[in-house]
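Journal club prep — side note

Before the paper discussion, L.F. wants everyone to see what a predicted structure for a comparable chain looks like in token form. Sequence:
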Amino acid sequence: MTPPSQDLTSLKALQVFRQEPRLFIERFCYIRDKERRTVLLTFNFAQDDYYQHRTRRDLILKPPQMGFTTAVCSLFLADTLLRHNTHSVIVAHNIESAETIFEIVQFMWKHLPSWWHDQHPPGRINAGEFYWPSLESRFYVGTAGSLNFGRG
């Protein structure tokens, strides 16, 4: 599949990225690597294997330091930004993990191209939530034990 131009306003580009979110992720999602450099996310072997075999209902018994959290954050963020009316939710086991996961998402958002920020500025960013009014989409990160998370 030929990668589309960087102009995400074209319907063709959006369709290609929706069909193959990895193209969006590896072109626009930056992470902080183990040497603390800001680099584009390129799936490693484990992330690639998950991406190739994922289903809509996966349970991952994840080993540490394999990049599954980063891969899932990038997939959820791509889905949230490329599809209107999307609510993505990641549930962590404790508040520290939730904060770390949300920092990954914030880092990816912060490093998207400025034209993306201009087209879709977030209406709200608070502890654990992004909301984009122009997309009517949300991204939440919360904890399983929270009494308020997921209510309403």
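L.F.'s comment for the group: The chain has one domain: 11-143. Keep this in mind when we get to the figures.
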